[in-house]
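@channel sequence for tomorrow's demo:
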Amino acid sequence: MKKIVVLLGTRPEVIKLAPVIKALKTRTKNFKVYVVATGQHREMADSFLRHFDIKVDFNLNIMRENQTLTEVTSGILAKFEKEVCDKYHPDMIMVQGDTTTAFTAALAAFYRKIKIAHVEAGLRTSDKYSPFPEEMNRRMISCIADFNFAPTKIAAENLHREGHAGKSVFLTGNTIVDALKAYSRLLSGKKKISGPDGCGKMILITMHRRENFGRPAEDVCNAVLKILDKHKDVFFRIPVHPNPNIKRVIEKHFGGNKRIIVSGPVAYDEILGLINSAYIIMTDSGGIQEEAPAFGKPVLVLRENTERPEGIFAGVAKLVGTDRTRIIHNVSVLIDSPAEYKKMAKSRNPYGDGKASLRIADILEKVL
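structure tokens (generated this afternoon):
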């Protein structure tokens, strides 16, 4: 029996690894699975873990207020080796995506010559500072991973082009589609969220990336206020990320505005409900770029580039950055032109068929 440690800590990691954990845990003759939490985004992650009925075996508790990336990296390197590798003696560790904790755990496993599986491998922007530090985190994980599970054909091609051995690259689909299919029941019977009187169109905003701290976040907020002036039937819903660099800006600009509903982080069923109720979604989140097309919602990406070009190519998403003029223009086009809205809302979802987790479990069962 092979022992597998699955590391998670952020909302996207929980959502995308939950179906993989469940698929691996059904194969009790071959795998013993341990779930290790990083303590990153503790409040958000714990809520999502409860929804997916996942028990954490150990929590690293590595997050501290306003710590630097260097402190995160050095802290998890030491803790993961001493408190996870020495305790569980895993045959493999599994990480997802591109967080600093995912990269550092993979590095700690490499130092111990433990096999590494990378879920959602091969996403690239080709700009090492955008997103920062995620672009380099995922590139470095690919270099030391034994199993690179690519969610799309483009991601697999990126890995092959970089010279990663063909036998380490597997095209699986995106596990977020598995999660959406498995937990779509959370929306059954739920009414769509309504806004203040006279406001029929909700725009959902999520924002958390480091490159949007400061002036970019200010520009997004100013664009929102202009959109409200221009379109009287619109209201905004903003579940605020707990990072104070974003939270302070949102609270400064939007306090007391009845057409802007600000809240703290929301549970998984709530975020799905918000996506389902939204008319337009504005986000810098990678996961929501993948979730929204399943609901037929146009996505305006608050970034200058994206490692998920499939959504752009399919027409379900558009890069608008954080420039006020671009944001206002693109929102106005979708509100004023039913034809343009329909073109984005009816485009196909390019991210998978809901069987990625089973493929990953099958591959590991065969090769480990």
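heads up for whoever presents: The chain has a mean pLDDT of 90.
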